[in-house]
Protein 1
Amino acid sequence: MNSDSKLLSKKNYDKYKTQIGLIGISAIVLILFMITSPKVFLSPRIYKSFLSTVPFVGIMALGLTMILAMGEIDLSFPSVMALSGFVFAITLKSTGSIFIALIACISTGAVVGLFNGLLVTKIGIPSIIVTIGMQFFIRGFSNILSQGRAYPMALSDSFFYKIFAGDILGLPSQSYWLIGLGIFLWFILFRHKFGEHILFTGDNEDATKMMGINVDKVKIATFVLMAVLASFAGVLDIFRMRTWWPTMGEGYLMMVVATVFVGGTSMHGGDATIFGTLIGAFLIGSLEAGIVAAGLSGFWTRFIYGLLIITAVTLHTVLKNQR
Amino acid sequence: MSLVSMKNIHKHYGGVTALRDINFEVGSNEVVGVMGDNGAGKSTLIKIITGLHPFDKGEMYIKDQKINPRKYSVKKAHEIGIETVYQEQALAEKQSLWRNIFLGRQKTNKLGFIKVKEEKEETNEIMRELMGFTGIGANPDSNIKTLSGGEKQGVAIGRAMHFDADLVILDEPTMALSLQEVEKVLNFIRDIKKRGKACIYISHNVANVYPVSDRFVVLDRGEIVGRYEREKISLENLNKELIELTKVEG
């Protein structure tokens, strides 16, 4: 048989080895859960539940993947989720229009993303500092505005409820959004010139400028994209809970960052994987449920997150360095 | 016709004068060797010609078009027909060959989506015809980091040649190359001249610059301190002149 026709030829192995490694890790984790908690993990109910909870982490992780591909970092997204959600709640309260509330919510995210991008590109502050500062600033801002109150909303009867939190063909609509955005952003990152500019900026910013690309514009647009995705995750969460609450988004920072690194995106820029992020989202998203179902206490959660991150990143690094 | 004409060009970076009163020309079918010590202003000169940095004072004409420094850019330089092979090759190591070739000049549909098949096919042609890749080992999907120094230089040169520039600027193209690879680069420069194009060749290595250039310009501390024609000066004398001109006083 001609070696070029093998499914796992050297060329294919080299191209897909990190994805193969990630699928391997995911399969091992899933089998472990099935062994330790067969009643839970052999029933389709848990997987349907994951399809409605994982997308919040997954959508923000897709945004973070684009940011890391560009060679930057953004840690403000949990607070963007909260502030945008608050804007949605008060706009809905004052206008009665879900559509206007959606526009206001997404625009809030876009403005925060724009600020992040401008501070990084025009003032020259490292993105880790800008976004950590922004995280505290806008969390504090939304707390001041809300005075710590939750905002329940009557959303169940609306058409929007069906598309953001209902069931479509037996599956949670959030999962369609995650997969749809995943496919869309894959095409943007790997088949659109904007995505190519993101990858080149992260890989070699000086070379990218020498080829005539406006790197500042690329960075600003990507920060805006990240923040818009965080706002959208906020919309999905609000429709699921039918409430905005002041601690919205808290707890997602570690999960989203873990998702992206476990998925195989490099923190050095220029090397990203959308498929890896999607798999990582389901892996990280299912971890806590698996730990609890196995009868372990909640103290084990961080230990196992950390172990998974170190194992996955080590495996990705070893595989990438293989010649 | 002068392809590039610079008159009384000045460039400052903060309080530092990088170029002072530069008068520099390149004809439409000549190779100009630009030489000088580190910090002489060679890189600044080409960054101005290629649109990477604007000049502060003076005038510049490219193909008889007066250049507005505030509106001139790398993209405009490409459109006018200026290509550059940078010292650092200006390649992104983790990206594939085909993406590096077409960066900034992607073939796209109206929505900006890249015509991947077309770009890969053209890259294949460029590799065979312009870069001398024999079809063994490297292919359009190869990551740049898997290529040797000479192959990377081949990619950068192939990129410059493919877009059929009227002026190709080479900034230290033979650094860290083997003797065979250096000869390939020098042959490429001879080829540029044969095709009726122009070239600015920047290098420390006089022995490499001398055989392929028509004229030499020497820069020192931001000023042009010497101009020579190859017909009128030997390699040995050019070397001596260079050392004398770039000597630090006291």
Protein 2
Amino acid sequence: MGLAAIAMVAVLSSCGKKPQAEIDSANAAIEAAKTAEANVYLPAEFTALQDSLNAVMADITAQESKLFKKFGPAKEKLAAVVTQANQLTESAATKKEEVKAEVTNLLGSIKAVTEENSKLIPKLPRGKEGAAVIEQIKADVATVDASIVEAQGLSDKGSYMDALNKIKAAKDKADSLNAEIKEALTKARIKF
Amino acid sequence: MRLKRAGKTVIGSLFLVAVTGSCILLLSRLAPKPPQAEVEFARLALSQAASNDAGTYSRRQYNEARALYDSAMTGWQAENKRFLYFRNFDKTAGFARLSAKKAAEAMENSKLNTSSLEKTIKLKIDTLNALILRIDKVFKAYPLPPEIWNRISRGKMLLRESEIAFEKGQYLQANKHITDSEYLLTASYEKASMDLKEYFDNFPVWQRWVEKTILESRKNRSYSIIIDKFSRKCIVYLGGVRKLEYNVELGTNWVGDKRVRGDKATPEGMYRISKKFNNNHTKYYKALLLDYPNEFDKAEFVKEIAQGTLPRNAKMGSLIEIHGNGGKGVDWTEGCVALIDSEMDVIFKLVREGTLVTIVGSTIGLKQVLD
């Protein structure tokens, strides 16, 4: 009779097994989201995802403390975390592609502007040679060129967010330089 | 009898199971409770801290809070492995409480750091944009060494990168760029100012020339002209009062005094109009020939030849004029002063041969220029 009671306790207390496979799946899905740089492209969503997993893990540990364990709800939550992580992986990839496309577009359009600038600079008034303004324009052209190289390097490495800031700044400068050169040519009545 | 005995056994067993179950339930109630509420509170605090970018702007405290949370969870899991009544969750609860406290501190710190960083960067962006405006205004036409322009240009680019990062709320990146930009721009500005200081060494002499010119205009109730090379202005005085002000263009190598023929420099000194040329007698749109070189210029030229700072076969410049055909927006003359034709018409009518024309490096001092 005593044995029967002990057996009953043992059965009741071990009726729920820790959902290790589901935990591993959730961790793997979060790791995949991180590999897709969700923490870079969608940081707020990634933080929320990690918090969801933390909450489930706390629930599981709480169940483990109990005499009569029940992991059913935790399994459902883990499945939801996996779904959420997979969606985030996809969204991050989409966002990354968008940023990459923006960088590629800007790299293309800035090259068109710098080519035009290079063609226009020799047309600037001869009197400008040796003058301060031509030195400034030369310095700005060199800086824009260096920024394009840096941005291209970052883009090649896949650091599209960093490349985007750099190429945006370079594009602004190239455009303002283009306007400045055209204004100088117009003022000097030189056709371009 | 047998039935009676069997009945007694079943009743006895049921009684024993009931007693055992009750004991287990009772003892499980008496067993130490896990710190679920404390851990949940810590997790929420961490989540809030993360949402407030504590991982970025209060990294050390946030990482400490995370480590404490992990310790709480590890401790809890370790206690779960022990027999129900031998568990002790005190440490776990302690770690959880500390984690929540640290997370709250990290969040507050992050908010403060973010706000402070935002203000600092905004202030630096405004200050550096003002500095760029000043550099563009003061040095736009001043021939600084190319390496200074390169540094200024790089500083401007970094400032723009900082502005872009700032607009996106990426304060750490913005701060890095603004710090680099600040270094480049302020150092370049200081270097450029030192360069300009040399140009202004002659300012006391220019000041005396300007005073004399205005005084003569006042005394004789006549027109006098002052050419300010630095601000590229032609200022016309009548009776000692400033009447007109026009923009001018100078020689391509306008910094410093004219020393030799072909140096494309605009001379500095007090001259008189020696001849007025109408359109038929000059290749430019009207011209006012100055009596350059004057006695002082000649003496300086001879001195430079004697000292060997000019070659023996060097020749003195001449034919310095105020003429039309200006408005190109650049310094393009061989050393003359060019105005746009309509303004040349006005000046040509006002002045006569003998009118005083004073050409100075600047009519205002360096401090005023930089301010």
